[in-house]
Amino acid sequence: MLEKLEAEIAAGAVIGLQEVSQKWAGKLHVFFAERGYHLVCSLYGKPFNGYMGIALAVPVEAYEVTKVDISRCSDTKRLPREPKPGGLKKFFSGLVEKITGKRPPQSDWQLARNRFNTIMYATLKCKESGVAFGVANYHMPCMFRNPGVMTIHSQLAAAYAQRMAGDLPAVLMGDFNLKPGDGGYDLITTGDIPSSHEAAPVAPEGEKWSTALPYPMRSAYKVKNGSEPDFTNFAQIKDDPQFIDTLDYIFVSPAVEVKEVMPLPHRNDVKGPFPSKAEPSDHIMLAATLTVKGK
C-alpha cells in the first residue's frame, strides 16, 4: 500500500484513506510526516476491526490548512424521531423482547442515528496561487440492505461538505458503499430524489425531513470518461458470492474542473477477488487532477 501511495505523494496529491486501523494509524503518521505531509485521522470503529476510521493527508509545502472539522456524520443534522411507545404498545414490545431476547426492529432513522462513522473536512489554501477549496472524506455505513439509511447518510455527508465549504469549491471523496443508480448516488449527483423513490426515507408522523441538497455534485470519473469505472471494489467474504462493482467516488462541486483521472482496470483484465499481491485492498485506488479558479 505504501508503494502505491509513494507515487501520489511524489505528485503532491491530497490523499483520503479509508478503513485505517489503530495499528496502522501510528505508522501512517510517521510515513506521511517523513514526506512533508500533515495527517488528520479519526478512528471510530470497534475492537474487532481495529477501531478503524478515516484519514486525510495534505502536503504542507503546497497547501496551508486553514480549517479542519471532524464530526460524527449522524450528528451533523437533527434526524426525525419516532414517538415513544406508550401504554399497551410499550408493554407488549417489552414482553416480546423479554421472551425472544431480541429487540424490536429499528427504523431507518434509528439505524442512521446509531452509526458512529465520522466525516472530516479541511479548507486548503494553495501557497502558490492563494486559491482556497474544501475537501471532505467519508466512509459510508455498509447498510445496503437498508437503502433508506444509505440515502440519509448520503444527504448528511454531501450537505456537510457543502456547508463546511460555503462559497468555496468543494470535493467529497471516499467509500460510499453506493452503486451508480442507488438512491444515495442519485441524491448526491442530482441534488434530490423524489419521495416516491424506493430509497427515499419516510419521516415519522409529525416530523419533516428534506433530502434536498444546496446543489448537486458531479463524479470526477463520470465527468471525464462519460461513465463511472467498471468497478472499484472486488471482494469476497468467506463463502459468499464474489462482489464486484463501483462503490468509491470523487464528487466535486460545479466550480471544480476535472482535468484528468487515473485509468482504472476493467474486470476482464484482473484476477480477483482482492486483496492480492498486486492489490493491497479490496478497493482499488482512485485519483483525479482537479483545478479551481480564485474569485
Protein described:
It is a single chain. The model has no long low-confidence stretch (mean pLDDT 94). It contains seven helices and 13 strands. The chain has two domains: 1-61, Ribosomal Protein S8, Chain: A, domain 1, CATH 3.30.1370; 62-81 and 108-291, Endonuclease/exonuclease/phosphatase (Deoxyribonuclease I, Chain A, 4-Layer Sandwich), CATH 3.60.10. It is globular and about 60 Å long. Strand 9 (233-235) and strand 10 (243-245) form a beta hairpin. The protein has a six-stranded mixed sheet with strand order 4-5-6-7-11-8. It has a three-stranded antiparallel sheet with strand order 1-3-2, covered by helices on one side. The chain has helices at 2-10, 22-33, 87-100, 108-113, 147-165, 183-190, 220-225, and strands spanning 15-20, 37-43, 53-59, 63-72, 118-126, 132-139, 170-175, 218-219, 233-235, 243-245, 248-252, 257-261, 288-291. The two termini are 38 Å apart. It is of the alpha+beta class. It is 25% helix and 25% strand.
Estimate the helix proportion, in percent.
Answer: 25-40%
Q: Tell me the fraction of residues in β-strands, as a range.
A: 25-35%
Whole-Å distance between the termini?
A: 38 Å
- In the CATH scheme, the class of the largest domain would be Alpha Beta
Rounded average pLDDT? 94
| Oligomeric form | single chain
Largest sheet: 6 strands, mixed
Number of helices: 7
Structural category is: alpha+beta
Low-confidence stretches: none
Strand segment tally = 13
